[in-house]
Amino acid sequence: MRTELESLIQQYRDVQNGVLWMGANYLRRFNELEGKDAFRRPLPDLHSIAEILSHLTLWRQETILKIQTGSGSKTEKCEENWLPNEKLIPLGWSTVRANYEESLETIIDLLADQDDSFLDQEYFYTDFKGHYPYRFVLQGMLHHDLYHLGQIGLILKYLKH
């Protein structure tokens, strides 16, 4: 049976470009953004939208590794967790965004071959130094995407003023 997995996959897609009860999805937010603004920090202590996408991409790539190998390699303190604009600007907004979008498609492709029992299988969580069911990371990724979607909305408001 794939009921729970299909629901998760649909929620990932909806958060990216579907209809959400809460309103804006990532695509709508990206369409509000001028490319040059992707690297702007509206306040010194706020991340840029590109920095947030890079951060989300890292944790998706880490999830891909967990699905493929049963263990991750990154921790919250790793340098790649929050790459600064100085490292992202040379890549360009289109590459940062493409990496982000490709990482989700890779996860969805990996889940396409699984059934709901996969969600109860365990992987090793490097930060927490313990074993957790895949359901934990896959639901957590969705929560993480929503959290940062809200931040992006606030950043866009700051950038417009």
From TrEMBL:
Gene3D superfamilies: dinb family like domain. This is DinB-like domain-containing protein. Residues 23-152 form the DinB-like domain. Pfam families: DinB_2. It comes from Aureicoccus marinus.
